[in-house]
Amino acid sequence: MISAQQPPFPNKIQRKMDCQSEEEETCEEQYDSENCTCSSEHTESDTGSPVTLKILQNWVPRVSHYFDKEHYTYVGHQIVIQESIEHFGAVVWPGALALSQYLESNQEQFNLKDKKVLEIGAGTGLLSIVACILGAYVTATDLPEVLENLSYNISRNTQNLNMHKPEVRKLVWGEGLNEDFPVSTYHYDFILATDVVYHHGALDPLLATMVHFCKPGTVLLWANKFRFSTDYEFLEKVCNIFNTTVLAEFPESNVKLLKATVRKN
After folding, report:
1. HSE on the CB side for 71, CA within 13 Å?
2. Are 42 and 181 spatial neighbours (Cβ–Cβ below 8 Å)?
3. What pLDDT, on a 0 to 100 scale, did the predictor assign at position 77?
4. Domain spans, the chain
5. Cα(75)–Cα(258) distance, rounded to whole angstroms?
6. Distance in angstroms (rounded) separating the CA atoms of residues 112 and 56
7. Which runs of E-coded beta strand occur in 75-184?
8. Angle formed at CA 202 by CA 104 and CA 227, multiple of 5 degrees
């Protein structure tokens, strides 16, 4: 069952919305090791914590893959995002802008300070950066090919802004969840997901990933641009599994923001 918590509200999402519509039609389809832990797979040390990988220590975006730098201001901080032409996850999409704005504007309702936050499909890292600035323990995840640019952006934008060092990890939806993120060890207060419904062959693994991480006490915040009937079919599946509430809608970008929690038996 889906319920509406509040009507749409004016937002300050900028030029990014306008320039992405054409892109979506054609593509439906210095990392600082002291500041950001990057784990490409769940390897544990004797203490049980992920081993820091330093293979990205000197990585910077390659000129051949350079796309653009976007500047944003959230929570009083300027954020510079390096984009890339290589992957879907290397571009800032409307859902990330919408949820970043919402978290900034609703800090009393969703207080992230000292909370454990997992972002699935973190992409360029904008939303994880905002969550980090808001004081959360952040774990940003995405496909292996996205991690370099993701790590670079998070590192350069979170230095000295949060006492909790953000972590970047590989996560392929539906794969190795029990091995890499055992429920007995990993519990998150918030799961963040934006514009993750874009590759319709991956929707069942995406749903399985949401179910794996969303336990009693966890809040899933999902923002997505709804384009096709299959997007709404996925929304229906989410509503059948979780208690779901529409928090906001952004008509100019067709983005809906939803909150989901585990159903009580």
Report:
1. 3
2. yes
3. 94
4. 87-265
5. 22
6. 28
7. 77-84, 116-120, 137-142, 167-170
8. 60
pLDDT in tens, 114-143: 999 999 999 999 999 999 999 999 999 999
d(CA 138, CA 143): 17
Amino acid at 129: I
Which residues of the chain have a pLDDT value below 70? 1-68, 85-90, 265
Backbone angles phi, psi at 89, to 5 degrees: -75, 0
Task: Name the pTM for this structure.
Answer: 0.77
Q: Does domain 87-265 have CATH number 3.40.50.150?
A: yes
Pairing between β-strand 219-225 and β-strand 255-262 as defined by DSSP bridges: antiparallel
pLDDT at 75: 94
Q: What is the pLDDT of residue 90?
A: 63
Residue 161 pLDDT: 80
Q: Could you tell me the two tokens for 160?
A: 């000295």
